[in-house]
Amino acid sequence: MPWHKYQDFLDQQRVAKLPAMVCLFGSDLYLRKMIVAALEEKLGGGKKVERENFYASESSPEQMLTAASTYSMFAKEKAIIVHQFQAWTAKQRSTALEFLEKPNPQTMIVLVADDPPGDYWRKKEYAKWFDGASGRLEIIDLTDLKESEVKDLIDRMARELNKRISSEAAGLLVELVGARPELIFRELEKISLAMGEGKAIGEELVHELVVGSRLQSIFDFTNALGRKDLGRALKIYHQMQEQNPSQEIFWYVQVLNMIKRHYRILIEAQAGLGSERALKSVMERNRIFPSFRKDYVSQAEKFSRGQLLEYFDKFHATELELWRSRIDAEIIQTVTESNVLMEKLIFDLCGA
């Protein structure tokens, strides 16, 4: 069986026989939720399905297989979700696949594996077992969505919320939040609540509600970094942390994405210094509102192009480490490592 892309699998399931077991390859919670919901609906024929959750780091494949062979007491059909599937050894994973030899027709198993590492070779090694298992197991790849796929998802999310979103607003949302459906849906939910009965989501609304006060924080933060004011930079960073108490890995990536966007605009603005027309074009192309434009120009004048490019090397290295730290890590450890990586970046940018 070949690997499936998210939407291709959903389209296929409208007409295909329900698989006894599938594997979701990727950690995006929104995509996982949509796949599991679609499978459960088909399994139960629209009726309630019992769900039983296992965590590979705490359970054995034998326990999962026992549960899979036991009929539900609360509903006719049962869905078993195995989280952190990659935590099992290759032998344990193969044991889990024994369910396919004699499946229980009233039970469906969903194996959930986290995102692969960012490094190419580690990613290839991580996916090696899944490639081998794809001959027997339906695997849905939730990673590396194309831009067109993300924009289609945004349109669908907006419709779910009874809204419509312009192509420009969708593009800005991806630019600000990243191509992570889970994060995008959170922001769209917030926008939907804020606009009440309104239907149309445009660029200004995305700019105001997604960026909002965070943009001023980012300006203050990057200004402090540009002045190499370590104390001020750390103070603002910690204030932003306090405003986001969950501080999941995605929060750190989102902050880093906003910082990267800010410095990319500085590079473009720097190239246009001395030409009012060129600067105006840069600001309009990047959808920078007039009230922020002077700040960008002022900051662009403080850096050399070499400095800005050097910063992007640091951003890239930090982002790789952020995603790498998430693989096979407990959530507390992951948050701690992510915070250490971000603070190290701050120290590096301030020359400390």
Topology:
Elements: E1 4-5, H1 6-13, E2 21-25, H2 29-44, E3 50-55, H3 61-69, E4 78-83, H4 90-96, E5 107-113, H5 120-133, E6 138-141, H6 147-160, E7 164-165, H7 167-177, H8 181-195, E8 200-201, H9 203-226, H10 230-242, H11 249-271, H12 276-285, H13 290-300, H14 305-326, H15 331-349
What is the chain-wise order of helices and strands?
A: EHEHEHEHEHEHEHHEHHHHHHH
* CATH architecture field of the largest domain: Up-down Bundle
Query: Strand sequence of the main sheet, in spatial order?
Result: 1-6-2-5-4-3
Spatial gap, N to C terminus: 53 Å
Q: Estimate the helix proportion, in percent.
A: 55-70%
The CATH C-level name of the largest domain is: Mainly Alpha
Q: Give the overall pLDDT as a whole number.
A: 84
Total strand segments: 8
* Total of DSSP H or I helical runs spanning 4+ residues: 15
Poorly predicted runs are: 327-333
Short description:
This protein has 352 residues and is α/β, with parallel strands linked by helices. The chain has helices spanning 6-13, 29-44, 61-69, 90-96, 120-133, 147-160, 167-177, 181-195, 203-226, 230-242, 249-271, 276-285, 290-300, 305-326, 331-349, and strands at 4-5, 21-25, 50-55, 78-83, 107-113, 138-141, 164-165, 200-201.
Q: How is this structure best described in words?
A:
- It is a single chain.
- The protein has helices at residues 6-13, 29-44, 61-69, 90-96, 120-133, 147-160, 167-177, 181-195, 203-226, 230-242, 249-271, 276-285, 290-300, 305-326, 331-349, and strands at 4-5, 21-25, 50-55, 78-83, 107-113, 138-141, 164-165, 200-201.
- It has 352 residues and is an alpha/beta fold.
- It has three domains: 4-141, P-loop containing nucleotide triphosphate hydrolases (Rossmann fold), CATH 3.40.50; 145-201, Helicase, Ruva Protein, domain 3 (Orthogonal Bundle); 211-349, Up-down Bundle (Zinc Finger, Delta Prime, domain 3), CATH 1.20.272.10.
- The strands form two sheets. It has a six-stranded parallel β-sheet, sandwiched between helices.
- α6 (147-160) crosses α7, α9 packs across α11 (249-271) and α11 (249-271) packs antiparallel against α14.
- The longest helix has 24 residues, at 203-226.
- It is elongated.
- The model is unreliable at 327-333 (pLDDT under 50).
